[in-house]
Amino acid sequence: MPELMRAVVLDGPGSPDALKIRSMPVPVARPGWVLIKVHAFGLNRSELHFRQGLGTFGSFPRVPGIEATGVVIHAPGGEFDAGTQVAALMGGLGRTIDGGYAEYVLAPASSVIPFHSNLHWDIIGAVPEMLQTANGSLTVGVNALPGSTLLIRGGTSSIGLATAVLAKGQGMTVLATTRNQGKAKALLAAGVDHVIIDTGTIATEVRSLFPLGVDGAVELVGTLTLQDTLRATAVHGTVCFTGMLADQWTVKDFYPIDFIPNGVRLTAYSGEAADLPPEVLQQFLDAVESGHVTVPIGKTYAFDEIVQAHQDMEDGSVSGKLVVTV
Known about the structure:
- Keywords: NADP, Oxidoreductase.
- The structure is a single chain.
- The protein has helices at about 45-50, 120-125, 130-140, 160-170, 185-190, 205-210, 225-230, 255-260, 280-290, 305-315; strands spanning about 5-10, 20-25, 35-40, 65-75, 85-90, 105-110, 110-115, 150-155, 175-180, 195, 215-220, 235-240, 265-270, 295-300, 320-325.
- It is globular and about 65 Å long.
- The protein folds into two domains: about 5-130 and about 295-325, Medium-chain alcohol dehydrogenases, catalytic domain (Quinone Oxidoreductase, Chain A, domain 1); about 140-270, NAD(P)-binding Rossmann-like Domain (Rossmann fold), CATH 3.40.50.
- The strands form three sheets. Strands 3, 4, 5, 6, 7, 14 and 15 form a seven-stranded mixed beta sheet that branches.
- α8 links the parallel β12 (about 235-240) and β13.
- It is α/β, with parallel strands linked by helices.
């Protein structure tokens, strides 16, 4: 084991250039924690928010990154054998404790999920948090059923594309939005049945396809489009508020009776590692390995390209999941 490692450090809120690669001590494992050699990690919108200083969570200086994939080096509590392939996510990673933007990460054992896969690490690194959020939004948030119709608002985001892949695998009819006509191909490649160009108000177009409205919807754009998404949803249908791509976090002057249509249910979803069962992760990776499922990776970066990766995430110039290999 080396004594030092490379890690991305954020001293305080700032632009992508605020992310600095530094040498720092490799964390020391202790009971209840797992030391992991990181091979790849995905980028997430919440890490952009953290870098920008939005919200009240987290502290500085900090190694960002709410997820990482790699192999176990040491688990003093005996939770995992050395060499086990694992994903670590949430549990304060990258916010209140140092996260996955590093060559090694020390994660709470409760935030670590084992798996086995022969896939390349750049593919594996895209999966954990994306799958956790997409799976939870469908099952816990919407409670979507085979044969139902599902609207994904913000479809070319990594969560949107993953949700489409899961929904199609479960036999749903999927509608998904994008503001950019040029990104429609990415949605069609993910199996989306109806691509809708998002002008800000799409409820009328959705109801031209399904006059009673869709059975369920996953809202990823945020509060700016939430009311319109609710209006595109059928009576007894469910809208799950999951994402905030538009970076507007609250609804001003929220009056529920005016905002929520009669009989439409509004829920929300945000999950932890415990919300991604190991068997769900393993089944998804197996499906990818067998060719039955495609991981919607937008672009892969080297560790030294972390600033450019964050700039691309901020610009929204890439559709799909951004992944950094270590």
